[in-house]
Amino acid sequence: MTQFKSVLERCGFKTAEFTEGSLTVRSPIDGSILAQLQETPVDSMQAVINRSHAAFLTWRMVPAPVRGELVRLWGEELRAAKQDIGHIVSMEVGKIVEEGLGEVQEGVDICEFALGLSRQLHGKTIASERPGHRIMEQFHPLGPVAVITAFNFPSAVFAWNAALALVCGDPVIFKPSEKAPLSGLATFKALERAIAKFGDRAPEGLAQIVVGLTPLAEALVESPKIPLVSATGSTRMGRIVGPKVASRFGKRILELGGNNAMIVTPAADLDMAVRAVLFGAVGTAGQRCTSLRRVIVHRSVKDALLERVQKAYGNLRIGNPLTPGNLVGPLIDEGAFTAMQKSLETAQAEGGKLLRGGKRVLEKEYPKGFFVEPAIVDMPSQTAIVKHETFAPLLYVLTYDDLEEAIELNNDVPQGLSSCIFSTNMQEVELFISQAGSDCGMANVNIGPNGAEIGGAFGGEKETGGDRESGSDAWKQYMRRTTNTINFSKELPLAQGINFG
Ligand code: NAD
């Protein structure tokens, strides 16, 4: 614990900040208390929002490439603090060290992306049908952006949103998950250091963090002064947040649950598929929104694939995520363990055959840590439980005969985040990524459904929310578009040839 204290101090925490508050943060590894954080009072939220709005009026006038300089500095701070923030992520959510570090690297990457973007917030010039006229579009800053995050990416999701929002001219208010506020705070402190270096070009209140429970997020969701709410979490949360934001005509980015599948065809490289199954289904103990939940395998290769997958599962090292060599850390809490057990029971009641795993392990060593053996269940069909996202290392196996049938199974779930096919057959691959193929926001070929890069737009369809964040042109959601028609003639012709008197 003394060592962890010094990690927090290196990340800029003052002792009182992590010892004197009412919000207890525990490690899922052993249940030990990592911090007692001070909670933001709910009745201070209006002041937080007002500060953000005031900051917007100044920040929107700072040229975008200058705003880019701020995210460049933030990227440098994240790079310098990568080991420490990665360590906090591992301690707070139980990711193995490599994955904790990878998460901070995503923050560095998005800062670099946003720096380049700060000189490319382009609109189009469009031909007008009227003589002596020109049409163009401009993208202007939008206003304060609320970033509400899930426990499982406690650092990167804030960075994805904030780096884009800041270069787009928007202040940010960050509400981290109450299950993982420390990693969020450490990431936020790196931004504060960057802001200090950036100096007085950054207005007060440009970036704020609020720590506590759901009512803080509700205040952001309901405020008409927050034009964009970016919320990452469960579909349950999205069903509440989406309509509330819509009812006040706000914009939203919803990044919700996934139920991601892999199709393995007779033309697959099985060795590659096995490695992808392993990282996809058991990496982060199955607690990624893009974790592999369903393998849809052709009958002719099913036995060969399952034999290899089961062998690989047999060699998995489950244990303390900080110990090198361990690949599977704990579930986030007892609730996650209970949910996994219930899903396993239901799957078997629905005709599934448990091939392996599902049991709690290391209970003696870690009585308060919920470590589980990753489970594989062979299902006779895609029953109700298979269509439900269980946020744990639980992999369902489904069997198919025709590729069209496999694609139908891939699509026949309420969620639409990520998907993939393993095949070396060009026709199979092209069909899978075509308009008649996977209906997910991400459809990969010969790589698993998880572990996306920041350069592409990230997000999914249907109950996953329908929005995109991170790369490509996701930045447009953080800005408002104006269309300008400019008349440089001495006439006033109307469009569509209308003659008005
Ligand atoms: P969660 O929905 O319990 O909480 C997420 C956040 O929403 C928290 O900050 C929480 O305080 C807030 N929240 C909860 N109820 C709210 C309400 N009524 N109003 C406003 N805010 C509210 O999710 P979790 O358990 O932390 O995360 C796991 C879920 O997140 C999984 O379903 C996973 O698939 C999903 N997820 C999705 C993505 C994606 O990009 N699609 C990424 C990461 C996680």
- Biggest sheet details: 7 strands, mixed
Adjacency order of strands in the biggest sheet: 12-15-16-11-10-18-19
Structural class: alpha/beta
Portion in beta strands = 15-25%
How many β strands by DSSP? 23
Rg, Cα atoms, Å:
24 Å
Bound molecules: nicotinamide-adenine-dinucleotide
Spatial shape: globular
Percent range of helical residues: 25-40%
Gap between N and C termini, in Å? 82 Å
What is the averaged pLDDT score? 97
**Separate helix tally:** 15
The parts where pLDDT drops under 50 for at least 5 residues are none
Written description of the protein model:
The protein has 501 residues and is α/β, with parallel strands linked by helices. Helix content is 39%, strand content 20%. It has a seven-stranded mixed beta sheet with strand order 12-15-16-11-10-18-19, sandwiched between helices. Strand 3 (125-126) and strand 4 form a beta hairpin. Helix 5 crosses helix 6 and helix 6 runs parallel beside helix 7 (156-167). The longest helix is centred in the first third of the chain and has 21 residues, at 97-117. The radius of gyration is 24 Å and the shape is globular. The relative contact order is 0.13. It binds nicotinamide-adenine-dinucleotide. The active site is at residue 255. This is aldehyde dehydrogenase (NAD(+)). Its EC number is 1.2.1.3.
